[in-house]
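Technical annex, item 7. During the second reporting period the consortium partners agreed on a shared format for inverse folding records so that results from different sites could be compared directly. Each record opens with the tokenized structure and is followed by the designed sequence. A conforming record, contributed by the partner at site C, is shown below for reference.
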């Protein structure tokens, strides 16, 4: 770029989506099409240390004179992949050094034709991964996950007594009827908690052999179930779908104990033929899904992975519908033991991503754990390729159901111990627990002084806007009486659903300690680094939470120095000018006891030290 500004480089991964693994060779360089007059606007961070990080964003203006960025242009070299959710990354280069500025995904490709149609540009707007995560949900129960997909049939198999009917939890009341009897014993099947399973014994449930026009022979169909196999000693059919007139078995899933394998079979002229029979250890089989498409294709999925496909055989028959059996037996003899839970039938072809989501969901309620562990668990649940950098967390969080959007739930975890969750310039999802900043060096990353070349708009504040002396958190209230007597009550209310009682009290007093008295703050700082090229490296290297020092010499006073943490970063390039605005919070020097060694309550070397 001109006027001594850094070179801006922009890359897009056409054909990829949020959460995909993107190979190095998939990035397309779009830098030559960037309009220098309104090159970019980057925003990342939060406005205050107790706030939630906003979704990071960037705006880029591209020359579109050849319509290459027009999503409807079939002649575009990128067609048909000029679509929202395309991954992008942006970086700046100064004297051969590359600094990341942003990593995220295109939100939209708005076409503009300025100059009464004489020109064509596209102002691409992109957001970071938190926006994509806001569109996904975590579930507090497996039942919620199933019912949200509008099942045709849903049996939970959680009967605690011998029954003649299996209740349908869908809205269709397609209850199953029992043939013979089962050895009913409810056990925990899903790993980590939740998901009661019924233990089936010698005979079976026969289900939907009298349900007309429900499970049709044609069209999309998906059957999902959780299963745990026990004591295999003979073949047994786990799920069997057949014509309702009994003329033909269309396909079935069996466990062949003598050969220790899962067999997916179909009937061809009365002979059962294996279609795809992978060797699968029975102890590892948990979640099985059979997906039939309108094109007569069948996919076999085990534990969230697709392990085979075939076309199913369908002979002419008077039957219009299919009947469904669960846990049938072959011939006579002891069937063995099968624990089964959550069998659902859907009148649609479920995607592989949806299959993986149901396989991953093995928790109804998250256990008591540290914030870092919980964050990683929720991120793993997405099954996306996300790079994370999580502190372990300071406090133990309470056991809670997982519910709501993924991004909101992740932010709740961070807020429950006053931590900071954000996406950095390289697209890494970062969690800093509430001790992160006191563990860092008190030496600033960079110092800024009013009146120095390139420094504009140093904004000092001494007010009571952030003054807090009463904190209501969850169901408890904590107060600094001396501050209330002097300034009146200044209340802050916090709702921290994942914080334990002890953690909530600790956070309340931490907040009061920092804000019970008004302090000198520098809320913002504006720098135009092209005025002094020595600013490029420290400014472009800055990341959220970095410690800086701001100097200010007001008339009639000595120079004041205030240590600050960076809460928000904005980079704007317009008409040849680069401007960086930092939103700041106060950073106090922290002293604490470092216990070098302790044994049986004896402290060998207690020293008061400056962190860390």
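Designed sequence (site C submission):
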């Amino acid at each position: 770029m001109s006027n001594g500004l850094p070179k801006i480089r922009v890359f897009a991964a056409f054909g990829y989506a949020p959460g995909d693994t993107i190979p190095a060779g998939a990035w397309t360089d779009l830098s030559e099409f960037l309009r220098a007059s309104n090159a970019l606007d980057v925003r990342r961070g939060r406005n205050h240390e107790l706030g939630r990080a906003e979704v990071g964003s960037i705006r880029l203006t591209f020359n579109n004179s050849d319509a290459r960025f027009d999503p409807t242009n079939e002649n575009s070299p990128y067609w048909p992949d000029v679509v929202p959710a395309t991954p992008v990354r942006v970086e700046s280069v100064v004297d051969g050094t590359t600094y990341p500025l942003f990593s995220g995904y295109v939100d939209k490709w708005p076409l503009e034709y300025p100059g009464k149609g004489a020109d064509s540009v596209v102002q691409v707007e992109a957001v970071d991964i938190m926006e994509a995560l806001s569109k996904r949900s975590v579930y507090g129960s497996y039942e919620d996950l199933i019912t949200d997909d509008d099942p045709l049939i849903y049996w939970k198999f959680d009967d605690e007594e011998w029954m003649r009917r299996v209740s349908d939890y869908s809205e269709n009341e397609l209850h199953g009827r029992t043939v013979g009897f089962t050895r009913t014993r409810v056990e925990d099947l899903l790993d980590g908690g939740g998901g009661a399973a019924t233990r089936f014994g010698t005979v079976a449930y026969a289900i939907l052999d009298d349900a007309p026009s429900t499970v049709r022979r044609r069209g999309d169909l998906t059957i999902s179930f959780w299963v745990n196999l026990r004591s295999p000693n003979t073949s047994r059919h786990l799920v069997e779908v057949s014509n309702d007139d009994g003329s033909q078995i269309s396909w079935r899933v069996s466990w062949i104990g003598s050969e220790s394998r899962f067999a997916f079979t179909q009937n061809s002229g009365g002979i059962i033929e294996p279609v795809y029979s992978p060797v699968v250890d029975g102890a590892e089989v948990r979640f099985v899904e059979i997906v039939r498409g309108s094109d007569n294709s069948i996919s076999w999925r085990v534990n969230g992975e697709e392990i085979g496909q075939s076309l199913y055989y369908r002979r002419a028959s008077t039957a219009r519908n299919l009947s469904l059996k669960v846990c049938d037996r072959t011939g006579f003899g002891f069937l063995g033991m099968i624990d089964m839970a959550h069998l659902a039938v859907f009148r649609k072809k479920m995607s592989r991503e949806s299959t993986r989501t149901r396989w991953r969901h093995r928790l109804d309620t998250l256990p008591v754990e540290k914030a870092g562990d919980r964050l990683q668990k929720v991120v793993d649940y997405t099954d996306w390729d996300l790079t994370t950098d999580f502190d372990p967390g300071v406090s133990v969080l309470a056991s809670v159901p997982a519910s709501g959007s993924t991004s909101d739930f992740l932010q709740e975890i961070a807020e429950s111990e006053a931590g900071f969750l954000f996406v950095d310039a390289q697209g890494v999802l970062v969690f800093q627990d509430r001790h992160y900043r006191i563990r860092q060096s008190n030496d600033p990353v960079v110092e800024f002084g009013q009146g120095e070349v390139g420094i504009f708009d140093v904004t000092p504040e001494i007010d009571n806007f952030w003054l807090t002396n009463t904190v209501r958190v969850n169901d408890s209230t904590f107060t600094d009486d001396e501050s209330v007597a002097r300034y009146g009550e200044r209340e802050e209310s916090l709702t921290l659903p994942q914080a334990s009682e002890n953690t909530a009290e600790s956070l309340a007093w931490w907040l009061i300690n920092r804000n019970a008295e008004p302090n000198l703050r520098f809320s913002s700082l504006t720098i135009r680094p092209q005025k002094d090229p020595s600013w490029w490296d420290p400014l472009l290297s800055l990341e959220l939470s970095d410690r800086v020092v701001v100097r200010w010499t007001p008339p009639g006073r000595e120079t004041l120095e205030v240590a600050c943490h960076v809460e928000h970063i904005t980079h704007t390039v317009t008409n040849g000018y680069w401007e960086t605005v930092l939103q700041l919070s106060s950073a106090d020097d922290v002293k604490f006891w470092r216990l070098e060694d302790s044994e049986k309550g004896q402290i060998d070397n207690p020293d008061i030290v400056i962190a860390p």
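The two ends are 41 Å apart (CA to CA). DSSP finds nine helices and 46 strands in the chain. All partners now use this format for quarterly exchanges.
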